[in-house]
Design a protein that fits this description.
The structure is a single chain. The protein has helices at 6-17, 28-42, 46-72, 95-104, 113-117, 132-147, 151-154, 166-170, 178-181, 185-193, 197-211, 230-236, 253-265, 273-298, 308-313, 315-326, 332-344, 364-370, 372-377, and strands spanning 82-88, 109-110, 218-222, 241-246, 303-307. The protein is built from 19 helices and five strands. Helix 11 (197-211) packs across helix 12 (230-236).
């Protein structure tokens, strides 16, 4: 069984980059914890080890490339990131659809898959739709969907669509997303409770680089795990605002467990069916608890709430109301672009993802009881 070694990963990245400036050492604790947990519990196959090793090496190499660019162009640090507007909510509540609707708005700058995977050199406006990295990323996605065909119905994206900003946190090795890729409970416990200040500082650093030659500057970003760390988010981004999507948790958790179980099967032969239900229930009830507590402290002014039903049935009106709540302009150009995207992308066009709570040891009553205060607070429709 392949075992990872942090020093070997770091030395390999340095050899490829030709320099050793990672921009500090704050990322090292996360890498060491992740590597230890992968070695301890993930039970990776050889193919799985290759996949995880590639991902870790890419994050290290990208970080070195970013620091080299900053050293050559120190003026990038003076870039002003506006907003951002963060899409949050439990996974499988329509966060991806909401994110793509907001991405269609021409006033917004979104993190696209290709530039998240390969952020250096910084994208340029003149070539943002023809950059050769786009085709390379799309080929990788096409291969993934061909190899793992169920994935398209679970989470479909292209190289140019908005993606979750997990790699921006991942370059600090402080990202709960790693837990979705392999069974690493020790790392998951650590990252849920670590100091995320340095992770969001690096997140900010990457956004400055990405917008330096490719505006606009009002960013929209998305990943459900931000709910675990909203204090760190607003410490780094004092003007941050949040679009919060809502859906019956009993219709969410089974899908979350199914998605994670499928992803972990790519890298390991182990089965987490018996434990994954309670694992995910604990993570997401804690995320909701923290997000609600944060909202209680700071007030509702930063938040706009949207239901999955509204996002699916009348997205333009849903966005209109949310923007008005947050004080975001919504002119005819934005409305036309969002409606055009909605008309061309119907729910379920990539297949239907079927999942059952019972497969993961959970029941509807158990889930609804765990999220009871949340669903009552936000009047979430139970179906």
């Amino acid at each position: 069984m392949t075992k990872f070694n942090s020093n070997d990963l770091i030395d390999g990245a340095i050899r490829r980059a030709g320099h050793s400036d990672f921009g500090g050492e704050s990322w090292r604790e996360g890498l060491d914890c992740l590597v230890h947990s992968l070695n301890e519990t993930a039970q990776l196959t050889q193919d799985g080890a290759n996949m995880m090793g590639y991902r870790l090496k890419r994050l290290l190499t990208n970080r070195l490339a970013i620091e080299k660019t900053y050293n050559e162009h120190p003026e990038i640090k003076d870039q002003i990131v506006q907003g951002p507007i963060f899409v949050i909510g439990l996974p499988r509540t329509g966060t991806t659809a909401l994110s793509q609707l907001v991405t269609a708005d021409p006033q917004m700058r979104s993190l696209r898959g290709w530039e998240s995977a390969r952020p250096v050199p910084p994208p340029e406006t003149a070539t943002e739709h023809s950059d050769p990295r786009i085709a390379k990323m799309q080929a990788e996605l096409d291969y993934m969907y061909a190899t793992y065909p169920k994935w398209a119905s679970m989470h479909h994206e292209s190289a140019e669509t908005a993606t979750e900003c997990q790699d921006l946190l991942g370059m600090e090795f402080k990202a709960e997303h790693f837990n979705g890729m392999a069974y690493i409970p020790a790392y998951s416990d650590w990252v849920m409770n670590c100091d995320m200040k340095s992770a969001y500082a690096y997140h900010h650093r990457v956004l400055k680089l990405l917008q330096s030659k490719c505006p606009p500057y009002l960013w929209h970003l998305k990943t459900p795990v931000h709910m675990l760390y909203l204090d760190a988010v607003v410490e780094e981004y004092p003007n941050a605002k949040f679009l919060w999507s809502h859906r019956d948790p009993a219709n969410v958790l089974g899908s979350v467990c199914s998605l994670i179980s499928y992803c972990r099967s790519w890298v390991s032969d182990r089965s987490d069916i018996a434990t994954i239900g309670n694992e995910q229930l604990n993570i997401w009830t804690e995320a909701i608890r923290r997000a609600v507590a944060f909202r209680d402290r700071v007030g509702d002014e930063r938040f706009a709430d949207l239901s999955l039903a509204d996002i699916q049935t009348d997205p333009l009106s849903a966005i209109n109301r949310a923007y008005a709540q947050l004080g975001i302009p919504f002119d005819d150009r934005s409305k036309t672009a969002i409606q055009k995207w909605a008309d061309g992308h119907k729910h379920g066009s990539h297949g239907k993802h079927v999942s059952h709570l019972e497969d993961f040891g959970l029941t509807e009553d158990q889930v609804r009881t765990a999220f009871g205060s949340y669903t009552r607070r936000f009047e979430v429709l139970l179906s």
